[in-house]
Amino acid sequence: MRTVFHVSTVDQLSYVDAKVRNLLADDAVPVSAVAVVVDSGAVIDAAADGDGRERVETVLAAGGDGAETAFRVCANALRGATATLDDLPAGVEAASSGVGELTRLQHDGWAYVRP
Amino acid sequence: MRTVFHVSTVDQLSYVDAKVRNLLADDAVPVSAVAVVVDSGAVIDAAADGDGRERVETVLAAGGDGAETAFRVCANALRGATATLDDLPAGVEAASSGVGELTRLQHDGWAYVRP
Amino acid sequence: MRTVFHVSTVDQLSYVDAKVRNLLADDAVPVSAVAVVVDSGAVIDAAADGDGRERVETVLAAGGDGAETAFRVCANALRGATATLDDLPAGVEAASSGVGELTRLQHDGWAYVRP
Predict the structure, then answer these.
(1) Which domains does chain C have, with CATH numbers?
(2) C25-40: string of b/e by CB count within 10 Å (b at 16+)?
């Protein structure tokens, strides 16, 4: 199973890493992939430094045992952020749009969680 | 692909039109239909006038190129609103219930987004 | 059709019972099962007493006519709550994780609603 977390606020960013780890640690639910999709410029800026950056790095490092993790930011939101993709942790990717990415993943069978 | 946006607050109404437009403008994700489902009387009232009304009209006009857009309000929420269906922009439809509409659309394969 | 409601705040708990009842009362949408999944210790504590407890009991009693209802709390969130599973209304179940339960149900075809 695969799950996408939709993050739009700095508050959601502050605990999404714990949610991702809880999911991957749940032995009752076999999960092969987790993605976090961000569609807010404020969250992108928060993800560039300090505590927010640590959350992103935790998500990207949470895989293993056959589970992949991804962290993707909306290209539209990037234009509204001060930070650029280069300011974010290595491994963060741009999505053509946040809502498009959420649509595409669910179309491919991923579960959706608004944390 | 098809996507439903679930709107319950006036704040969500204030930017859902931008999300709908971002989705329809995303060339990487072919989208044939978008619906906004409202299940709050306060949002229905906000949708009747001023800025909120413009958001609804923008959603309804955002289709084209083979993509349809719809704006539906929960019949239960309508009973708690001051505005009636006739006070809303032409094209807005009533759903038998907001949660029922969200269930039906996802059952038919639509993606769900909480904006 | 089947629907899971994802509850993370005491505010969401305060009206999720009404959403469940609206869904089950919607004759246009045949629903065979509804689940509420809680992933917050604060909500678990609120569900143990008073108004919150009534909401849980309303959800659990809302079934009938072939529709089942369930109320499940995340085992991780239980560890952060003051209340224990024994303090909650009879019928409340523990899930191995809230996000795992949300993933599993959607994988099985349930619709997701963030109330």
Answers:
(1) 2-113 (3.40.1260.10)
(2) ebeebebebbbbbbbb
Structure tokens at C5: 């409601």
pLDDT tens across A5-54, in order?
999 999 999 999 999 999 999 999 999 999 999 999 999 999 999 999 99
- Provide the pairing of β-strand C2-7 with B111-113: unpaired
| Preferred mutation among A26, A34, A103 to probe C, highest tally of C CBs within 10 A | A26
Who among B6, B107, B114 is closest to C1 (CB)? B107
Chains touching chain A through at least 3 C-beta pairs below 8 angstroms are B, C
Judge: A97–B29 Cβ closer than 8 Å, yes or no: yes
| Interface predicted TM-score (ipTM) of this complex, two decimals | 0.97
Cβ pairs B/C, distance under 8 A: 53
Say how many residues make up chain B: 115
Q: Which residues of C touch A115 (CB under 8 A)?
A: 8, 99
User: Tokens standing for C115?
Assistant: 């109330």
Residues in CB range of C37: below 8 A, 6 or more apart: C4, C5, C6, C7, C72, C73, C74, C95, C98, C101, C102, C105
Q: Does the reported pTM lie above 0.95?
A: yes
